[in-house]
Each structure stands twice: as C-alpha cells, then as structure tokens.
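Good day; I would like, with your permission, to put a structural problem before you. The record follows directly beneath this note:
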Amino acid sequence: MQDLSIGFVPLLDSAIVLAAEAKGFFIEEGLKVRLTRETSWSAIRDRLAVGSLQAAHVLAPMPIAANLGLFPLAPKLVAPIALGLGGNAVTVSAALGAAMEAEGDESDLDPAKAGAALKRVIAVRRAEGLPPLRFGVVYVFSGHNLELRYWLAANGIDPDRDIEIVVLPPPFMPDAVEAGRIDGYCAGEPWNTIAARRGAARIVTVKAKIWRSSPEKVLALPADFVEANEETVAALLRGLYRASQWAAEPENHPELAAILAEPGHLDVDRAMLEPLFSGTLAISEKAETTVEDFFLTSAKAATFPWQSHALWFYSQIVRWGLCDHSAENAEIAKMSYRPDIYRKALQPLHTPLPGASLKVEGALKAPTPVGASAGGLILGPDGFFDGQTFDPDQVGAYIEQQKGAV
C-alpha cells in the first residue's frame, strides 16, 4: 500500500480530499494517506518544494505560477484534477457594506450592482481625503486575487490605484475585518459566512456570479513524482473522483459537514457548513440567500482540469504585471493542467469525460449536453458577469484587449 502525505488548507473546497480519506476511498484504491493541515498557502508551497508533501489542495493558479518560476523554490507542478467549482465570496466590513447600500447596492450579490456601489463609495472617500480601502486576498497567485481584480476593473475600479490589496491566510480574514485591519476580502468559505454571522461583515458578491462554473482549487503534485508514480497518481485521482460523487449527493451533506467540522480539519460549527453544500450562505448577521451552483463537487465536470481555465488564469497573471506574455509562457500555463492524466486514470470508472481539453469560457448560456466519452455530461451555464468571453485559442488578443481596460 502506497503512503502519501497530502496537504490542505481549512476551507470548504477541501471537501473531496477530506471525504476521500474519511470515507475510505483512498484505502479502497490502495493508498494510505496522511492529511496535513496548513494555515497558509505559502506553507503549502514550501512543503511541496522541499518534498515533505507528495500532493496538496492548492489554489488553481499556483501550479501555473510555479511552472513559470514566479515564486521562490518553485517546484514544477502538475494539476491533473480540479477539486470543484466555486465556493468563495467577496466580503466587506459592516461599515463598508452600509456605505455600499447607501450608494445603491441591493444586497442581492449582483456583481455589477455591488461594483458600481463600491466605485461610488471610493469616489466619496477620495473627495473627503480618506485613505484607500484595504482588501485582503489569500495569496498573490490565487483565483481570489485575480477574480477580485477582474471584478473591480470591470466596474471601473483600478485595483492598483483605487484600493490597497494585502495578503492574509483565509482563517485570519474574519478577525482582520472585525478589528478594522482590512475593509474587505475575497476568500473561500466558511470564512465569509463566519464574519457575516458575527455581524462584523456582509457578503456583497460571490465567485459563482463573477465567473460562473470556474475552478477554485486543484490537486497539485510535483512533476517528477507524477512521472515516477503513474499508477499511484491514477489511484489518487480515482479516490478523489469517487469522493466528489459522494459529496455531491444531498443525503450525504450532513455527514460531509461533520467530517469537515472535525478539529483536525476545519474546526468550525458543522451547522454553519452544511447549508453551504446546497448554496445557502449567510450574507449578514440575520440574512441568508441561496446561490445556484455556489459550490459544485461533481456536476458540470467539476473535477475536470480544463486547460482553458489555466489559460484564463495565465491571462490575468500577465494582465496585472506578474509575468510577461509569450507563446512559450502560454504553453507552460496550458500544460500545467493535465486532462490527459485525468482521462487515463478515470477510464476504469467508465465515467463521462469531456472530449475536448479547452472550451470558450462564457459561451454556454444554458445547461448544455456536450460530447463525452460516455453519455450524460452537461456543462454550463458558464462565463463572466460582464458578458465577456475568453477564447483560449486567442489568448494573446485577449491580453491585448484588456490592456486598455482599467
């Protein structure tokens, strides 16, 4: 039996990793897995780099950044499976939430309304000589940072001029906003709900509305480990895929919430976690709402590592000056996600697999049956709140188009 150490950060989207271990899916695939809880993404990064982890639950852009050499000790990483779609939100302090409501935000999580209200608040603060608002993100190379910036820019807010962005580990976010150290943040659940339930903050929009059907975390493994351990990696992916299907069933949500709530996992109230699996989240101390497709573990090919997702993240890394664009860099980004490994590993399960490895992001306006290796695969709707589309075959033109945007 193969021994593996897998790192995770305490977040809702670690669900299928934790469930695969707790429900015995790893054991059934011949793997003995030891889970290692880490507080920060930099700790995950470093432990992968020095070889103390064989795999980890990581931010979706992290393998791309690693393979482009954008952080110290960057190991070459492979992302052969996604760990779900959605699951994060943008949260602001109670005071900023009230100011946004006064400027027209209707507390319905609409990204355009919330962004327009925030822009007006920023203008008022500037006129009054107040310092820029400070927003927290969990890591520079995170979907949180890149999607927050996309949302702000699409609403006419310059994320490098009109606000300040700082990095904090996700479990620290509620305390930081409550203490007034930050005015808002973008983080994964349950750290938005926790601040909202305290009355310290309000959720103003969610990932599932900014970029619908988009990935939040992936499993990353060192490339040399993948090359040397093909069967082990295949078994690992099968265990995770089976866990993703189990986690998607509503009748399993109470048990899944209990698994995540354990002290060695998220260590939070299970009653706060369970509604999130059906998309019901607290947006303030007393109000809650249900968001369609807020967090998906299995439906809509939620675990498939689309290379178009990798290239969109790459486009935003370039957009915000974190690396230069070249055909070589785009290819490195694309090949950081490995649908070929995913397909081969899952063949014994006879599961529906997309026939393509890339798609135009934002092209699907309704649930759409797609070509797959077996019947029954439905994708979409997907896409960006501002109506833009991303064609991965035109990544250079897309980057040029965004140069003139805020």
About this structure: The CA atoms of residues 353 and 373 lie 5 Å apart.
